[in-house]
Amino acid sequence: MNFVVNLEYQRYVPLYRRLSDALRKAILEGRLKPGDAIPSVRDMATTFRLSRATVLKSLEDLHKQGFLETIHGSGTYVKKRWPGDLSDLLPPRELEASDAQTDRSAQLSAYGRRVTALCQAESKEWNVHLPQINFGGPPLNLTPMREWKALLLKHSKGNDLQELTYIVEPCGYPMLREAIAAYLHRLRAVRARADQVITFSSKQLRLDLIARVLLEPGDCVGFEEPGYSEARVALASHGAEIVPIPVDGDGLNVDYLLALPLKFKLVYVTPSHHDPTGAVLSLERRRQLIAWAKRTGAYIIEDDYDCEYRYGRKPLPSLQGLDGGDCVIYLASLWKIMFQALRFGFIIVPERLRSVCVLAKTQSERYLPVLEQLALSDLINEGHLERHLRKTQGALARHRQALIYALTKHAGGRVRLAPESAGMHVLIEIDTDLSDDAVLRLAYEARVPLISTRAHYMGAPRKGEFVLSFAEIHESTIESCIQRWMELMEEYSAGGRIRTNENRA
Amino acid sequence: MKTELEVNFNSKFPVHRQLSDALRRAIIEGKIASNEPLPSIRTLAASLGVSRSAVARSFEDLASQGYVTTVLGSGTFVRHRMPGDLVEMDDLPELGSPGPDLNRELLLSAYGRRLMQHEREWAPHTVQDLNHGGPPMNLAPLAAWKVLFQKHCRLRDLSLLEFKPDPFGFPPLREAYASYLTRARAVNCNSDQVAVFFARELRLDLLLRLFLEEGDFVAVENPGYPGARQRFAAHGANMIPIPVGPQGMDVDFLASLPNKIKFVYVTPSHHEPTGAVMPLSRRRQLLDWAKANGTFIIEDDYDSEYRYCGRPVPSLQGMDDGEVVIHLSCLWKLMSPVVKLGFLVMPRSIVRIIRDAKSLCERDLPVIDQFALTDFINEGHLERHIRRNRKTYGKRREKLVAELTEHLGRRAIVSTESAGMDMLVRIESPCSDEEIVRFSQQAGIPMVSSQPYYFADGRRGEFVIPFAMFDEDQIERGVEKLAFLVAQKDKI
User: Fold this and answer.
1) Phi and psi torsions of A11, nearest 5°
2) Which of A55, A261, B16, B202 could bridge across to B57 with cysteines, CB 3.0–4.6 Å?
3) Mean pLDDT for chain A?
């Protein structure tokens, strides 16, 4: 029996009583549930190092007290309904409410206080999401799920699992790191050796690690405005002084950054596909940014998120590739092609930051999922990933075309699309007198995956600006969804006008 | 093409993978020039003695990655423009060439600098030795686990994944684990106080980040688990070593300290490395002291599952009303290679802040692993596994004690505490610690010195033997050989 009872010595209380008391306590506290089998006398005697007579006596007691019942030939059980059970008369014990909570906020560190403040500010739920499984990623029929599962199964069957699982490599399975370095070189012109690649089991840990080893509270971090709010919160939680840098059609406004009289520690950019506007950082600006970073000793965090799909535009090399990995920390993940549940994240660090990052990694995450790493290295090395990319490129381009067509046809000039040509979503501006919340609710009703850009802004958000993810809606239903959405908006804004007229009257 | 290709038929990689990996490497390294034709499928297959389809598959994989291109009726060629050669990449500096002379090391944060100070001791390869002591592979519950894992791999279509994952883990798993802890460790908790961590190291790390400022005092056991000490040091804590006796941490000493202590780190159920178990009276004393001082107790309930004699002791957490004890546990000692998840049971008053902080650094957890583990616990495999192994390990321990007494006699002093998977032994001999460790490796029962567990002045001649790793035969032969080697040295 794997059940611990407290048999602490008490004066004048015989051992059998202590056992029965402990068992009773367990029953009353619900650790032993009605219907649970009580181990045999012999079993308990060996587990607790008691004589059988002692156990027998205490069980007899509980029996008499009506806590236990014996079913002949089967064993002893906790009675379904034991004495004093008023559970059907009383409401269930609400632990949350009854337990007095100690206020621990005074004990928090500066980091703890920052996290509390940031999370309170961010906890306002801006968006009503569609019940979408793979939010922000491709629809499930466009993920290489079959190949992935086949590889996972293959590796879980392997008999050498035993030796493989003992790999203690905090930065990831060497073959996977090699595969990632080669893959990113092919796709994004990243130039790195495998040992500069650090694998994380969770995407969030990447920025957390970088911030921890580099940032002191009060250090300046340049951040795109608007920009990816999650990254901003992560950096701010480590005390970064976030300096918003405006973004235009060519991505981050580097001139503006250069003109600031501040000493920057880090700059966070999404050059391949800016979140949310979709702007691509121009080559000119890329060079300017790198030259500036080299001159001032700042590091650039290049979050190369959503870089895989491009429509009719030649890809630009990553900042990391242009720089050769001297001042750029490159963040990569595969979930945009695969699915959310593939949690892996990767960073590529400059050589001089390698040892400190490896140490920090060891202090926060030493083991990585083994089977997934094996499966992922196969998925890349056997070409499945790139085959899949090529296959879905066409499908996504069609989704995008269908969306643009539907918006031009049904929105009648009320919706402006931001000029971009990459990624899985577009930025749109809607010209309407409905509130943003109303627009979101109507989109939800029409099953259009729309989110507001409010969370992206540090300063005042822009009204009527939204991100529409075209990857998620099925190609054949895009038009009807958009049409329905536009009709709903029409109806409601008309309704709104009528109401205001009534009010005036 | 001058590259030597070789195929190893005993490799775990299929032939086509070996070929494509070798060719890719050759192309990247420039051994095969661009525009150079690859040999035809037929010739290559014949010369290597492999099937044509395997060669064709490897060419296809390389083509899909953009390294080669097939011209119909002419052959397969290495591409002129390699993938990754994007615009204007020609006049770039060499890989890794340093920029202007800026000492970037100075730009690290205080945390980063503390890590770099300990670069040598903390580098992962040295830490690995201390991980010594997981379960032996052949006793890991691999078969049962595989069945469950594969079942979920096949059945769960992703539509069952929660769209917004809970940073604390899959709720049914938390429920199952909470009830396991209640049954097995008398932990007093509800599933909403349980957090699942994939990165086990992150548990302590998060707690320290949230509650500790640089320079705050923490009390740790001396000797004690070095991994935890590293984390305290990395966060700039002022560590106060508290001596450990046969009854665990010396609480009187702790209570006599004048400092305001933020955390006490204890392993009361099985002290690392002495194996001491803290008796109930002392646990109460510790709890009372912590409550009076507003100190958090971090109870690392590590390796508490196996006890070979005496009664199991309930956890500290269960004796508390749930406000000062933070309970850490993991399945590492039980099923290390298959499941390495860590669990944290926290007081209600800090659930909110831990949730916020965790969602900033580890929000997603492995999905299939969590599904499989839930079943593993709920179907009773875990407890069955513990029961079965307890018997085996108990025998191994007895054997070890018997062999040590037989062969080393008075030279070996064994700690009396009979729990866990390793045992502390004092060996009195003229040999140095390094020699004994080397002898033990030669004897096939590698043990480690207990020195790293101590703050300073470690004790000479004290060793940790992970007896659970070795079967009884190994122990018998190993101890005999070790005794022989020691005795030989003695004579010289």
Assistant:
1) -65, 140
2) B16
3) 81
Residue A100 has pLDDT above 60, yes or no: no
| Cβ neighbours, 10 Å, residue B292 | 10
Nearest CA to A411 among A496, A489, A464, A494?
A489
Instruction: Name which residue leads in pLDDT, A391 or A136.
Output: A391
Specify the higher pLDDT residue, B379 or B479: B479
Contacts of B209 in chain A (CB under 8 A): 109, 111-112
Q: What pLDDT shows up at residue B322?
A: 67
| Predicted local distance difference test score (pLDDT) of residue A123 | 56
CA distance A213 to B106: 11
Give, in order, the Cα–Cα distances in Å from A196 to each of A135, A193, A352, B13, B114: 30, 6, 10, 25, 21
Q: Which of B112, B239, B236, B180 is nearest to B376 (CA)?
A: B180
Q: Is the pLDDT of residue A267 over 90?
A: yes
Q: DSSP letters along B434-488, please?
A: HHHHHHHHHTT---EESGGGSSSSPPTTEEEE-GGGS-HHHHHHHHHHHHHHHHH
Distance of CA A460 to the CA centre of its chain: 26
Q: Which residues 6+ apart lie within 8 Å of A387 measured at CB? A: B64
Asked whether A450 and A440 are in contact (CB, 8 A), the reply is: yes
Phi/psi at A264 (5° precision): -95, 140
Interface of B with A in 167-186 (CB under 8 A): 182-186
Q: How confident is the model at residue B347 (pLDDT cuts 50, 70, 90)?
A: very high
Most confident of A126-135, A226-235, B150-159: A226-235
Q: What is the percent of chain B with per-residue pLDDT over 70, rounded to a whole number?
A: 89
Q: Which residues is B191 bridged to in the sheet?
A: none
Closest by alpha carbon to A151, among A376, A446, A391, A307?
A376
Q: Average pLDDT in the A181-198 region?
A: 90
What pLDDT score does A496 carry? 53
- The pLDDT of residue B337 is 65
Q: Report the pLDDT value the prediction gives residue A85, as an integer from 0 to 100.
A: 42
B368–chain A Cβ distance below 8 A for any pair:
yes
The Cα A62–Cα A73 span in angstroms is 19
Q: How far apart are CA B279 and CA B313, in angstroms?
A: 8
Cβ of residue A64 closer than 8 Å to a chain B Cβ: no
- C-alpha gyration radius of chain A: 30
Q: Which residues of A235-269 are buried (b: 16+ CB within 10 A; e: fewer)?
A: bbbbbbebbbbebeeebbbbeebeeeeeebbbbbb
CB contact under 8 A, B202 and A185: no
How many angstroms separate the CA atoms of A115 and A124, rounded?
15
Q: Does A155 touch chain B (CB under 8 A)?
A: no
Residues 157 to 176 of A: which have CB under 8 A from any B CB? 157-158, 160-163, 165-166, 168-170
pTM exceeds cut of 0.90 = no
ipTM metric: 0.85
The pLDDT of residue A95 = 42
How far is residue A150's CA from residue A154's CA, in Å, rounded to a whole number? 6
Residue B296's beta-bridge partner residues? B263
Strand ranges in B224-373 using DSSP code E only, listed in sequence order: 238-245, 248-249, 261-266, 296-300, 325-330, 342-345
Model pLDDT, residue B3: 57
Residue B78 contacts residue B68 (beta carbons within 8 Å):
yes
Of B286 and B413, the one with more pLDDT: B286
Q: Is the pLDDT of residue B127 over 50?
A: no
Which residue from A234, A325, A352 is facing B360, i.e. has the nearest CB? A234
Q: What is the distance between the terminal CA atoms of chain A, rounded to a whole angstrom?
A: 79
Q: 3-class SS at A145? A: helix
How many angstroms separate the CA atoms of A120 and B85, rounded?
Answer: 46
Please judge whether A49 and B322 are an interchain contact, meaning their C-beta atoms are less than 8 angstroms apart.
no
